[in-house]
C-alpha cells in the first residue's frame, strides 16, 4: 500500500539518501527531501534541515508518516541531537523510522549505536540498516577516492583484513523496502556485498577497471589517526574511532557476507567490479 503522507528522507543529497529518495519517487511514494540547503529534488518536496538547528525540525516532520535517518557526519555522539529529534517525530505522528548505521557499530555501541538501541522503544515500526563500507568510497567524494584521483593510491591500517563492501544502490533498495513494505522489519539488517576483499585486491580491481595504477599503502593505526586529523581536518575523537575501525577490519571483524540484500530485495547484491565499472562510466 502506497502511503499518502510523505516519507521524510534526511540527507537526501547524500550517497544513500539521494538514491533512497529517487527510488521512493520512482515507485510512487511521496518524498520530503531534507538537506541543509533545502536542495530541490525533482518530484520531491524540498525542506531545509539541520541536525544542529532544532528550528528546522518541525517543518521537516509535520505531516510525515515515515522517516529515513542519516546521522550527522563526523559526530562521535549523534544521539545527543538524534534522540530529541526522534521523540519529537513520534509526538508529531511519525509511525516508522529506518536508521542508517554501520556493520561496525553494534546496538548500544559507540556513535550511532545508542540511537540504534533506543529506536525500538520509540517506534513500533522500525529498522536499522547496518551496511558494510560503501563501494562508492572509491569512486565518490570519500577520502579514498580523492587520494586515488590525486596520487593513484589510498591508505588504510587494515592489513590483510577483508571487507565485503556493499553498493550504495543496494543499501537504498533495502531502505525502500524497509520504509514501504506493509510489515516493517523491526530488526537490524547487516548489509554486505557478495564477497569479502582485502584492500590489496581492491587496488588490483581498481587498476584493471580504470586502466591506471592504483596502490594500497599500509599504515599503522596511529598513522591513520594522524593522517585523518592533520591532513583531512577530522576531529580527533572521530578520527580515533575511524582508525580503530581499520584495526577491527585487520583482525577480521568485517570478513563476512550476509543474505540481507537478497532477502529484502529478491535479488543478489552487486559485486565490487561491476559497481566500479558503472560508477566510472557515469563519471566520464
From TrEMBL:
Coiled coil: none annotated. Residues 11-181 form the NAD(P)-binding domain. InterPro entries: Ergot_Alk_Oxidoreductase (IPR051604), NAD(P)-bd_dom (IPR016040), NAD(P)-bd_dom_sf (IPR036291). SUPFAM superfamilies: NAD(P)-binding Rossmann-fold domains. This is Oxidoreductase. It comes from Streptomyces caelestis. The lineage of its organism: Bacteria, Bacillati, Actinomycetota, Actinomycetes, Kitasatosporales.
